[in-house]
Amino acid sequence: MTDGLKIELGRRYRFSASHRLHSSKLGEEENRRVYGKCNNPHGHGHNYVVEVSVSGTLDPATGMIANLADLDAFVEREVIEPFDHKSLNEDVAVFRENVPTTENICTEIFARLKHFPKAKLERVRVEETGNNTFEYAGEEP
Amino acid sequence: MAMVYLTRKLEFSASHLYHNPALSAEENKRIFGKCNNPHGHGHNYTLEVTVAGEPDPVTGMVLDLKELKEILEREITQRMDHRFLNYEVAELKGQIPTCENIARVIWNLLEPKINKGRLHKVRLYETPDLYADCYRNGAHGA
């Protein structure tokens, strides 16, 4: 931007899902030791909050970085629809292999959203609970 | 000395509408959806202003919060609170009062007034789920 200012748009979304933290690379006992009650074989759930930040130049005709309706539809299609009210371990292919920790959920959401065509994805922040937050801004340049 | 970031929050309530007179009525409707309602609509905005600086060795402050509060009252609250942003805020004339544009206007109003420390970031929430951040290019978006 010519005035040297950078503008980012932040938007919060929500989904609820269950998961179980269990690594196929570890034994039963080791899994219990590492993951504690998150290793409960039947899983458990959270209300996740996903905060998505995008940047770009403001379109002078609309005053917007990106039309919110486009961003909402993209996030809905790429993340909310496949994650909401699902068992992450069973219903989301990538988490059949990778443990669905919120770190891994955060980087997976970033990978799904970085191709948003209308603006640059800056970062993804995921709240697993009000007390636990994870943030990812892509690989260091 | 260590750089410290202090943030002051304030709220204001205002109405606005999105309409670009260069576009047809149908185009306006398509792009802006219900934000194009000709009579406008309102929000409770929450503004977070972050100032960066090194604490003064005598006062222990980056800048006096009272002073910042007065700047925000004069520059933002008096100008925008309980106003129709499209018609009553001169700085927004000719612009669509999106969260992005309002955040930039707020930045430009505040930056020259903050003489102790420097303005680091403006975050404007239009709703708890939608906000715009404004900062200098190259500054960390912390």
Task: Give keywords.
heterodimer; A: 141 residues; alpha+beta; Tetrahydropterin Synthase, Chain A; 5-stranded mixed beta sheet; 5 helices; B: 142 residues; 5 strands
Explain the overall architecture.
The complex is a heterodimer of chains A (141) and B (142). Chain A has 141 residues and is of the alpha+beta class. Chain A has one domain: Tetrahydropterin Synthase, Chain A. Helices cover 31% and strands 31% of the residues of chain A. Chain A contains 5 helices and 5 strands, in the order βαβαβαααββ. Chain A has a 5-stranded mixed β-sheet. Chain A is elongated. The model of chain A has no long low-confidence stretch (mean pLDDT 95). Chain B has helices spanning 25-32, 65-80, 85-88, 99-110, and strands at 4-16, 41-53, 83-84, 118-127, 130-136. Chain B has one domain: 6-pyruvoyl tetrahydropterin synthase/QueD (Tetrahydropterin Synthase, Chain A), CATH 3.30.479. The model of chain B has no long low-confidence stretch (mean pLDDT 95). In chain B, strands 3-1-2-4-5 form a 5-stranded mixed β-sheet. Chain B has 142 residues and is an alpha+beta fold. The A-B interface holds A 1, 3-13, 53, 58, 61-65, 67-69, 122-123 and B 18, 20, 22-23, 31-33, 95-101, 103-104, 107-108, 123, 128-137, 139, 141.
